[in-house]
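Give me the fold.
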Amino acid sequence: MRSWNEPKKNKAHIELIPMIDVMMFLLVFFVLISLNVIPAQGLKTQLPGAASAQQLKPQKKAIVTLGENDGLQLDGQAIALQDLVNTLKQQQHDEPLTIILNSDKGVAVERLVAVMDNLRQGGFTSVSIATRKL
């Protein structure tokens, strides 16, 4: 009887080095993506600095953003100056509303004062200007 040499069957094995490479790539990919996934709401502004800037306590607030190119936003949504007070009064309900003015440092002071004056005439007395701490 004749026997033929049958090739030895190799066991399947998992290559670890390529799997580690793929896992490292995925880790780096998700870390880099997570840093840029959360976009800033509203207009990009460069806040002016103040040495006496304070951290705000949690409260019911509305953020009004003044951009350099005459952009005006309320909590990230574009709004006209004449509609600002009415929209804020609808948000206010019964509890007092703190308004934070987030103005770019390139915005003219005249425009900032006009928005603040409009808010004061609408009955909002708690108006703060956002700054970054130096």
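The first helix runs from residue 16 to 36.
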